[in-house]
Write a structure and sequence with these properties.
The complex is a heterodimer of chains A (269) and B (236). With 269 residues, chain A is mainly α. Chain A is 72% helix and 3% strand. Classes of the chains: A mainly alpha (269), B alpha/beta (236). Bound molecules: adenosine-5'-triphosphate (ATP) and magnesium ion (MG).
Amino acid sequence: MGALNQRGIDLGRTDRLAGQETPLHHLDPRAKLLVTVLFAATVVSFDKYALTAMVPLALFPMVVIATGRVPVGYLLRKVLLVSPFAVLLGLANPFLDRGVAVTFLDVPISGGWISFGSILLRFVLTVSAALLLVAVTGFQRLCAGMARLGVPEAVVVQLLFLYRYLFVLLAETQRLVRARSLRSAGPAAQSLASYGPMVGHLLLRTLARAQRIYQAMSCRGFDGHLRGEILPAWSGKETFFLLGWAAYFGLVRGYNLPYLLGQLLIGGW
Amino acid sequence: MSHHLVEARSLCFSFPDQAEVLKELSFRITHGEAVAVVGANGAGKSTLLLQLTGCLLPTSGEIRVGDLPVTRKTLEVVRRAVGMVFQEADDQLFMPTVFDDVAFGPRNLGLAEGEVAARVTDALATVGAAHLPQRPPYRLSGGEKRAVSIATVLAMHPDILVLDEPSANLDPRSRRQLIELLQAFEHTRIIATHDLDLVRQVCTRTLVLYQGRIVADGETDGILSNEELLLSAGLL
Ligand SMILES: Nc1ncnc2c1ncn2[C@@H]1O[C@H](COP(=O)(O)OP(=O)(O)OP(=O)(O)O)[C@@H](O)[C@H]1O
Ligand SMILES: [Mg+2]
């Protein structure tokens, strides 16, 4: 229950972070969205065994964290929350791919482990970039930006609802779990048997609540169209932001910077 | 709409596959009236109020707002005229900040952003929540939430205000402020409540619902002093 409460608060925290006032927050969401998509595309385009070559890409999330005043702990917790997924995804590699790829301090490292590391790094990079995007933009403005970029309104509205109902689902879960735990003391409590009905009940409650929210929205004239999100206008700043990062990603993709740096140092000696 | 009236003609309603919740209701509420709808839990108050905004449509009979029957076709016009404050403030507030929430309705009306901001400020000031615009609604206290949800509706400048249990969960002072606010409105007001004291202070007329029927409709003073009636309607 503690964990749930914590997470419930966490969701709200994203919105609060998004409400901060920094130059990054004031940037047109479209620029941030495009750079993030470009970032993800760059990460994905590296080959299977790339590891060190991708490291310089971490500069992007780091700069966003610093300029957007996003607490590192907040980000880490969220990334950890979803990381089991990436571990599962990559775990087979070390077993399937046993050929020695490099030897580091006399320890042979198989290609499988390297690609496993590569998957983890990609995962951490893309997930943090996506989380940061929401944290420095806000979900509503992000959706407005998508709409402006030509994403169909129906899709955008669905996303907005999804986000809103996520809060509803969490709040309902929180209440239900609380009510349950307060009435379950003793060894026979917390049995698995009661979970089935509980989940069903939760679903029905969430649906009923979602319906009431929808009613309240329609009473205030909601007709499936988004209105009002005033976006900051696209200006030189946005172009600079977009082109600057695009150039950097291109550089990292085109040249193995850590390798070149190593060469430079060794060559210098 | 020139006439802010609400009229029900033999209004019946049942949820799919269930017994009738509203049975043959007829009444007429005219411009500027403040009407209380009282009745025991489950009497059908909330269901009746949802008919007024077209969230639920009658199974038979009709309900008219102004000169129009409430139907799927007239929903837009009806909802401009009728502002509804829901029983659960949490259901009403769904945007990331109070400002956005109050602005939601006016924006849907297609107003310019300047006019929207003016209406938001105005509505928040009216309910005494002028200091809250940047707060996230889900972090407000019960009383603040109630005030903001009333503001969300006021910002649309409705002719008719419909409130479901507005004084529930309010502390004595917030409740008093709410009563003063409701007294000050010149809108047609329809208020479903268990708070008979609020009814006495705000509403000149009272409808008593009992198991989906209107069992009394008349001056508040007369009805609230009729103990027999209140007992039989499950209110005492
Ligand atoms: N969504 C629904 N589906 C089916 N039946 C419903 C639904 N909502 C309400 N009812 C039933 O309709 C009847 C009237 O409910 P309603 O919510 O209008 O009562 P109320 O007078 O507002 O009660 P309260 O004072 O508790 O708010 C109740 O018997 C209830 O069980
Ligand atoms: Mg009710």
